[in-house]
Design goal:
The structure holds two protein chains of two kinds. By secondary structure, chain A is mainly α. In chain A, 77% of the residues lie in helices and 0% in strands. Chain B is an all-alpha fold. Chain B is built from 13 helices and no strands. The chains are: A mainly alpha, B mainly alpha.
Chain lengths: 316, 317
């Protein structure tokens, strides 16, 4: 690493710390491979209507359970739907859920609550952290299943959801909102705890004291002095959670309480392909989504590890 | 270590409060959805009069807060309520036998996790610099990335359908062929975490002066590693027990459903789908209690192992 830092200094001191970290990340071959895979996955997901060769609902009962061919590169499923197209559309579901959870639970909730608890201290701190304790103590998976199983009809009946759904042209918007809402509810605790503990230490540093002495407002101290100093930790804790978020959506859909058909999801594909009868005759229906899911979560984990190495100086 | 008793007391005082909040959250969520256990049990062709009568008998037509008050009162008297599905059998009779199944499955999985993770971590540390170190850790990291709902069907495909080694489903205790696939599938994701921490702590221990002394006095390398390095590197492993426990519990959910094992994973799923309120709440309370207590025990154990760790809010400072 010594050569790296010398290189960076030679290349110019104008780079921001995050820019430097990014350059260091690009030197790790495995991290770059993971980034490329994730980029392709997100591209396919975001532009599924353009990328997918067929629609995910197109059925052809004359050609069910087909093996790989030119028209269907990954074969067809029990209803004659193109498996490749369904994988691409399923990645769209994963993309939407991970991004939405990342923003709500990862960024908004955990960062703001962690900052507040750490900087304000006292009663605010106690209330936030105790609420966190409760969510931490609730058994996660059963609670998520419970929330999604019981609240779905209530949410889907709301008038504004229907309006928003027509406007966004996303099928089953209520499913998405419930999934990422419920995930966010549990996802913020870990990040908020880490950020709070950092802020507790930073709050006592000289430069924050100096800023306070010069009459800087609380907002200015939080956004100009504290936030930039915890941004590394925020990125690390966000990237560490991505694999878990993607995995939980797939698990919930697998249980039948997540994204509902006909909207494709890896959870549903794994459920259909995982039954012992299908496994016996058409194992490819399990292996295709299984390989994509494992590769995606693997890539998330590798990227998370590389980011931890690059961004937390003590670990290097 | 004089500050430890007040600390334990303070942590234990929080337990009932957290459990109270947990039960309230679970109670509200469970009753918020449409349908109740009676209407689910009576199915599509139900008699509205009978529905109302049974609801009244079970107290389901009372206001929500009254229902919750009655529930808490009963729990405080050691009564977790009755199931709506199994002919009104008490919840404790249903939960605890199934928990015993899940606990044994989880224990076997934990033993595999640590039994494989610790030696692999030591080996990786000893082979630092060769290709074996990144290769083993990378492989384990891949296993961590495969969800249980993927690994179980894949293992079924290979070990049951192709090789005919293990049965496809069922449960016959811990000394039975049935346990191999679920226990392996549940333990695989956790091995990576254990092995990596073990690798890191072993690397730290290898640099210590006492290791150089041991080598200098002519101890064989095996004795140096087993007596001096491994023993000191093992201490911080207590911190990952908690995380491993959660990984195993969540994995058991999927393995139990896929392999037809009569544990709490299966029970939780069935009780949620049939709105069996008291079973849902009982499971939540028991799981939350176990989880909170396990965390407290691990925190305390950690301070005994490493006296440098100061307990937050303790009198040690």
């Amino acid at each position: 690493m010594a050569i790296d830092t010398a290189d960076e200094r030679a290349l110019g001191a104008t780079h921001s710390p995050l820019g430097l970290a990014f350059r260091r990340l690009l030197r790790k071959r495995i991290a770059v491979l993971a980034l490329i895979f994730i980029a392709i996955f997100y591209f396919c997901g975001l532009f599924a209507p353009l990328v997918a060769p067929h629609s995910y609902t197109d059925q052809n009962l004359d050609s069910v359970f087909q093996g790989p061919s030119l028209t269907h590169p990954l074969g067809t499923d029990s209803l004659g739907r193109d498996v490749l197209s369904r994988v691409i559309w399923a990645s769209r579901t994963t993309v939407i859920v991970t991004l939405a959870t990342l923003v709500t639970g990862g960024l908004v909730l955990s960062v703001s609550l962690g900052l507040l608890a750490g900087y304000m201290g006292g009663k605010v701190d106690t209330v936030i952290m105790r609420v966190g304790d409760v969510f931490f103590a609730l058994p996660g998976l059963p609670m998520l299943i419970l929330i999604n199983a019981t609240l779905k009809p209530r949410v889907a009946d709301q008038a504004w959801i229907k309006t928003l759904q027509d406007w966004l042209r996303v099928d089953g918007l209520a499913d998405y909102i419930l999934i990422f809402g419920a995930l966010s509810l549990f996802a913020w605790v870990g990040g908020a705890r880490v950020i709070r503990s950092q802020i507790l230490a930073l709050r006592e540093t000289e430069y924050v004291e100096a800023a306070r002495a010069m009459g800087a407002s609380t907002w200015r101290i939080i956004f100009r002095h504290l936030l930039p100093n915890v941004s590394n930790i925020i990125i690390v804790s966000l990237s560490a959670g991505l694999g878990a978020i993607a995995g939980t959506e797939i698990a919930l859909t697998w249980f039948g309480v997540g994204i509902h058909p006909p909207t494709p999801s890896f959870g549903a594909m794994l459920f259909e392909g995982g039954s012992i009868r299908t496994l016996q005759v058409h194992p490819q229906l399990l292996l295709v989504p299984a390989a994509v899911v494992a590769a995606l979560i693997f890539a998330f984990n590798l990227l998370g590890d590389a980011l931890t190495d690059v961004l937390t100086p003590r670990a290097r | 270590m004089q500050g430890i008793l007040p600390y334990i007391l303070r942590r234990l005082l929080w337990v009932p409060l957290i459990l109270f909040a947990v039960s309230f959250v679970a109670f509200t969520i469970a009753r918020f959805g449409p349908g109740d256990p009676i209407s689910v049990a009576m199915g599509q062709y139900r008699n509205p009069d009978v529905l109302e009568r049974v609801r009244h008998e079970k107290g389901l037509d009372k206001p929500l807060l009254d229902q919750y008050r009655i529930y808490v009162w009963n729990v405080l008297h050691g009564d977790l309520g009755d199931s709506y599905r199994f002919g009104g059998r008490p919840v404790s009779d249903i939960i605890f036998p199934k928990m015993w199944v899940s606990a044994r499955l989880g224990l076997v999985a934990l033993i595999i996790t640590f039994g494989l993770g610790i030696p692999i971590g030591i080996l990786a540390a000893l082979k630092q610099g060769s290709w074996m170190d990144p290769a083993t850790i990378g492989t384990l990291l891949f296993f961590r990335s495969v969800p249980v709902l993927v690994s179980v069907p894949v293992m079924l495909l290979v070990f049951t359908l192709k090789l005919h080694w293990f049965p496809a489903a069922g449960w016959g205790g811990i000394f039975d062929k049935h346990i191999v696939i679920p226990a392996l599938a549940i333990s695989l994701p956790g091995i990576a975490g254990v092995a990596r921490l073990m690798r890191a702590t072993t690397l730290d221990a290898l640099k210590e002066d006492y290791v150089r002394t041991a080598r200098a006095k002519g101890l064989p390398e095996f004795a140096v590693v087993s007596r001096h390095v491994a023993r000191n590197a093992l201490l911080p492993m207590t911190t990952v027990i908690g995380i491993s426990l959660v990984t195993v519990l969540e994995g058991a959910f999927f393995a139990e459903l896929l392999m037809g094992i009569p544990g709490i994973g299966r029970e939780a799923f069935d009780s949620v789908t049939s709105r069996d309120y008291d079973v849902i709440l009982g499971l939540t309370l028991v799981l939350a209690t176990a989880f909170i207590l396990a965390n407290i025990v691990i925190d305390i154990a950690y301070t005994f192992i490493d006296p440098r760790v100061r307990l937050q809010g303790g009198a040690a400072s």
